[in-house]
Amino acid sequence: MKKILVVDDEEILRMLIVDTLEDLDFIIHEAPDGLAALEQLQKENYDLMILDYMMPSMTGIEVLTHIPSAVREKMKVLMLTAKTQEKDKQEMLKAGTDFFMAKPFSPLDLMSVVEEILQ
């Protein structure tokens, strides 16, 4: 069974993502910030991390720069972001983002993208 880590400082958004994906037979864990995500990544291996770009103490980009390459090679990253300028996308790609999804997003679109990524 595929494992997903959802990292977002907004609890309501994490709940929406979990509710959207829980019927798809994934194991889903949550982290409220970048530091908690890095701690979780030391304990578990994930197939996908759904990562918020803008979080208070550590941005999604900063989280990506702290993930060991051995962990990163086995995991896809879907960045959720309101930053959609080309320069922002380039920064995310350079940091190791595999996929982007603009906020706000449709739960059905999220479900489709996640299924496509994890096939």
UniProtKB/TrEMBL annotation:
Segments traversing the membrane: none
Keywords carried by this UniProt record: Phosphoprotein
Q: What is the superkingdom listed in this entry's lineage?
A: Bacteria
Q: Which Pfam families match?
A: Response_reg
SUPFAM superfamilies, A to Z: CheY-like
Q: Which residues form a coiled coil?
A: none
Annotated Response regulatory domain ranges read 3-118
In the UniProt record, does the keyword Isomerase occur? no
Which InterPro entries does its entry note? Bact_response_regulator, CheY-like_superfamily, Sig_transdc_resp-reg_receiver
Gene Ontology BP annotations: phosphorelay signal transduction system
Q: Which residues carry this modification: 4-aspartylphosphate?
A: 52
Q: Does the keyword Phosphoprotein apply?
A: yes
List the protein's name. Answer: Response regulator
In which organism is this protein found?
Lederbergia citri
